[in-house]
């Protein structure tokens, strides 16, 4: 039996998007938490925890988008046509946040607040837009004769908008636990308190999305609650609840690394639940991976390049996080 290149490409794109959600999630989360901290020195510490690595995190977003274009051009054309506006809004938010990283440390004291606002606003807009894109993707896209036939504002529905709010809670929790791991003193204590509240907010958000999804989409409900799919899906909510309890316990024990690891696990479980819900569709509810795939020759040609560059991205990422490991203290910076 030959190797299905379409499945390999699906795995690569899924991996790239997951890496982006995890790695850019916590630095977007730091931007969301910025307004809860007033002290200038503590804000400097917050930014310096991700200043050396934040731009490398964007690589995974580029990989996911480029892989989708090369391996699944039909999905690329439908998704970008349907979600053009929220994706543009997301990119504008990412631009403001990226510029704020560089200019905030160089701005005069009386103008620094403007870059703080750009950092907060860019993080808020980018995160919310990503959640809207996710919700609209779950809702699905009308496709006829391999073309999208919806309206440009179809994403302005309650479910995608709520997913935007839910992702704010997820990224804020990621950012909070990252700062617990990377900081100390009053800032770390503040993050412990926030993380406890955000854990409950995230649990409620996940619960509401999990209820809303099958109620609004009978096809997903059928996929969840019929055999043998139920056997694959059942561990997800069980592990989520166990992870939530472990998270509260780790916060009570004032653990530093474990809250972040558990939050990553929760994000991964949510991501795997999404994959189970939509499989094998890459454009819900009707276009499968194989329907949207480019010719095998094109996929193979692109795969050679992807398999060549992926190890370098992973090595660069691992090395950068290794070099800048450990606590970040006031007065330490990279600008």
Describe the structure.
By secondary structure, the chain is mostly helical. The chain has one domain. It has 15 helices and four strands. A two-stranded antiparallel ribbon has the order 1-2. Strands 3-4 form a two-stranded antiparallel ribbon. Helix 6 runs antiparallel to helix 7 and helix 8 runs antiparallel to helix 9. The longest helix is centred in the middle third of the chain and has 31 residues. The protein starts with a helix and ends in a 12-residue tail after the last helix. The mean pLDDT is 87.
Q: Which features would summarize this protein structure in a list?
A:
4 strands; 335 residues; two-stranded antiparallel ribbon; mainly alpha; 15 helices; single chain
Distance between the termini: 54 Å
- How are strands sequenced across the largest beta sheet? 1-2
Number of strands: 4
Q: Indicate how many domains the architecture comprises.
A: 1
Strand content: under 5%
The topology string of helices and strands comes to HHHHHHHEEHHHHHHEEHH
| Number of H/I helices | 15
Task: List low-pLDDT spans.
Answer: none
Average pLDDT, all residues: 87
Rounded radius of gyration (Å): 20 Å
What share of residues is helical?
over 70%
Content-based structural category: mainly alpha
* Largest beta-sheet characterization: 2 strands, antiparallel
The 3D shape can be described as globular
List the SSEs and their pairings.
Layout: H1 5-33, H2 40-48, H3 54-57, H4 59-71, H5 73-82, H6 84-103, H7 112-139, E1 143-144, E2 147-148, H8 158-182, H9 186-216, H10 218-225, H11 229-233, H12 235-252, H13 258-278, E3 281-283, E4 287-288, H14 289-292, H15 296-323
Antiparallel strand pairs: 1-2, 3-4
Helix pairs in contact: 1-4, 1-7, 1-8, 4-5, 4-15, 6-7, 7-8, 8-9, 8-13, 9-10, 9-12, 12-13
């Amino acid at each position: 039996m030959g190797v299905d290149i379409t499945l390999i490409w699906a795995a690569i794109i899924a991996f790239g998007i997951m890496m982006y959600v995890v790695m850019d999630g916590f630095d977007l989360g730091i931007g969301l938490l910025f307004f809860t901290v007033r002290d200038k020195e503590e804000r400097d510490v917050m930014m310096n925890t991700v200043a050396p690595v934040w731009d490398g995190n964007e690589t995974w977003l580029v990989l996911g988008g480029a892989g989708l274009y090369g391996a699944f051009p039909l999905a690329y054309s439908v998704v970008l046509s349907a979600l053009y506006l929220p994706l543009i809004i997301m990119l504008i938010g990412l631009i403001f946040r990226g510029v704020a990283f560089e200019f905030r440390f160089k701005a005069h004291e009386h103008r620094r607040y403007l870059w703080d606002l750009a950092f907060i606003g860019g993080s808020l807009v980018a995160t919310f837009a990503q959640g809207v894109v996710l919700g609209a993707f779950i809702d699905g896209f009308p496709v006829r004769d391999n073309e999208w036939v919806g309206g440009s504002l179809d994403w302005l529905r309650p479910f995608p908008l709520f997913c935007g709010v839910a992702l704010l809670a997820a990224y804020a929790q990621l950012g909070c636990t990252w700062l617990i791991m990377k900081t100390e003193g009053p800032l770390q204590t503040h993050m412990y308190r926030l993380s406890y509240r955000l854990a409950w907010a995230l649990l409620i958000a996940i619960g509401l999305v999990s209820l809303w999804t099958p109620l609004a989409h009978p096809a997903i409900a059928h996929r969840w609650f019929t055999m043998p799919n139920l056997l694959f899906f059942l561990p997800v909510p069980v592990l989520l609840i166990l992870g939530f309890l472990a998270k509260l316990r780790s916060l009570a024990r004032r653990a530093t690394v474990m809250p972040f690891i558990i939050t990553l696990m929760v994000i991964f479980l949510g991501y795997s639940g999404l994959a189970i819900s939509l499989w094998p569709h890459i454009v819900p509810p009707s276009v499968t991976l194989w329907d949207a795939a480019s010719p095998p020759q094109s996929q193979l040609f692109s795969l050679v390049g992807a398999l060549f560059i992926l190890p370098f991205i992973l090595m660069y990422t691992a090395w950068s996080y290794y070099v800048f490991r450990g606590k970040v203290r006031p007065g330490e910076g990279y600008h």
